[in-house]
Amino acid sequence: MRIWIGSLALTMLAGCSLPASLVPGEPNVSKTSGKPPKDYAACVLPLWQQDIPKATQISISNGYRITAPSIITADEILDIIKYKDGSRVSLYQGPPWAKSAALRKSVRDCL
After folding, report:
1. Quick one: 27 exposed, middle or buried, by C-beta within 10 A (0-12, 13-18, 19+)?
2. HEC string of the chain?
3. What is the pTM (predicted TM-score) of this model?
4. What's the rounded Cα separation, in Å, for the pair 30 and 27?
5. Cα–Cα distances in Å, from 67 out to 2, 11, 24?
6. Where are the domains of the chain?
7. pLDDT band at residue 9, thresholds of 50, 70 and 90?
8. How far apart, in whole angstroms, are the C-alpha atoms of residue 23 and residue 7?
9. Bridge partners for 50 per DSSP
10. Tens digit of pLDDT for each residue in 37-81?
11. Are 46 and 55 spatial neighbours (Cβ–Cβ below 8 Å)?
12. CATH code, residues 2-109
């Protein structure tokens, strides 16, 4: 019985770490850039991959999403969408103790 309860609790915690549960909330960082989404993504992705080699980029509506996977907490996600003559970037990070300062710095450095 204890094993079953432990498994259930672990499964519920794992569900909390899915990116989908993170993205609908408010971003930790929301900025605009004069760069178009393609150029901004081309700046950020290699920097993220230096810190987290498995970081990936996909196309989304009007832009790109870069995801840095995490084994322990929610993935760190950067949405880059077309905005006026440039981009709006939104960074979603997990709990305070799990946030990557290096990824946040890359987001700002590429603005």
Report:
1. middle
2. CHHHHHHHHHHHHHHHCCHHHHCCCCCCEEEEECCCHHHHHHHHHHHHHHHCCCCEEEEECCEEEEEECCCCCCCEEEEEEEECCEEEEEEECCCHHHCCHHHHHHHHHCC
3. 0.77
4. 6
5. 36, 22, 15
6. 2-109
7. very low
8. 26
9. none
10. 999 999 999 999 999 999 999 999 999 999 999 877 789 999 999
11. no
12. 3.30.310
Q: How far apart are CA 88 and CA 33, in angstroms?
A: 6
Provide the token pair at 104: 């946040």
Q: Are strands 56-60 and 63-68 parallel, antiparallel or unpaired?
A: antiparallel
Read off the amino acid at residue 27: P
